[in-house]
Specification:
The complex is a heterodimer of chains A (114) and B (118).
Chain A (H helix, E strand, L loop, with lengths): L2 E3 L4 E5 L4 E3 L2 E3 L5 E8 L6 E7 L7 E2 L2 E6 L4 E6 L8 E9 L6 E2 L3 E6 L1
Chain B lengths: L4 E3 L2 E4 L5 E6 L6 E7 L5 E8 L2 E4 L8 E4 L6 E5 L8 E8 L12 E2 L3 E5 L1
Parallel strand pairs in B: 2-11
Antiparallel strand pairs in B: 1-3, 3-8, 4-5, 4-9, 5-6, 7-8, 9-10, 9-11
Classes of the chains: A mainly beta (114), B mainly beta (118).
Chain lengths: 114, 118
């Protein structure tokens, strides 16, 4: 079984600053994938970034980067140069190799202030 | 391409009534999933279709929930009879054939159907 922990229920960040969203996970699987999704007020879950457990490089997608520390079982999301449109709930999720199911954390609400 | 579409966006029903939620996946996506988020808790997996076949329904809470995917296109999730604890947001997602674990096989989610049982 997999467990995802997001310890920050809510965060405020100033526009143009960077913000780090914490995510730790617990799994006995050796091979797995980690995902971050964004859920704005419209409700749709938007895929942001993926990191494979055997990827040597940290994943980056535009202003999003994933700080992957395998030994610590953490996969923190870093959003650089925050924009007002980044205000949303962010979910960390993982999926084991050979499995189709995603396990999600409780989510972190980010509010970007002008 | 059109995304995953869910209908209705919000449904309010009384305990004991029936509700049917519908999901139209991205055209050509063989994999279709239902997830649920109840009362601010984690999003939980309900079930997974591959085309019209149920691949995994281990997350279905009880036999009051019935999911179908006729013809391997759209899917419905029926709750009958609804109970108070069924209130929450029901998400549908789809992904292309194969992949499974692959990072390229990313689930695309819809906006969810919010169910309120009074």
């Amino acid at each position: 079984a997999q467990k995802i922990t997001q310890t920050q229920p809510g965060m405020f960040v100033q526009e143009k600053e960077a913000v780090t969203l914490d995510c730790t996970y617990d799994t006995s699987d050796q091979s797995y994938g980690l995902f971050w999704y964004k859920q704005p007020s419209s409700g749709e879950m938007i895929f942001l970034i993926y990191q494979g457990s055997y990827d040597e490089q940290n994943a980056t997608e535009g202003r999003y980067s994933l700080n992957f520390q395998k030994a610590r079982k953490s996969a923190n999301l870093v959003i650089s140069a925050s924009q007002l449109g980044d205000s949303a709930m962010y979910f960390c999720a993982m999926r084991a190799r050979g499995d189709y199911k995603l396990s999600f954390g409780a989510g972190t609400t980010v509010t970007v202030r002008a | 391409e059109a995304g995953v579409t869910q209908f209705p966006s919000h449904s309010v029903i009384e305990k004991g009534q029936t509700v049917t939620l519908r999901c139209d996946p991205i055209s050509g996506h063989d994999n279709l999933y239902w997830y649920r988020r109840v009362m601010g808790k984690e999003i939980k997996f309900l079930l997974h279709f591959v085309k019209e076949s149920k691949q995994d329904e281990s997350g279905m809470p009880n036999n009051r929930f019935l999911a179908e995917r006729t013809g391997g296109t759209y899917s419905t999730l029926k709750v009958q009879p609804a109970e108070l604890e069924d209130s929450g947001v029901y998400f549908c997602a789809s992904s292309p054939r194969g992949g499974g674990y692959s990072g390229a096989n990313v689930l695309t989610f819809g906006a969810g159907s919010r169910l309120t049982v009074l």
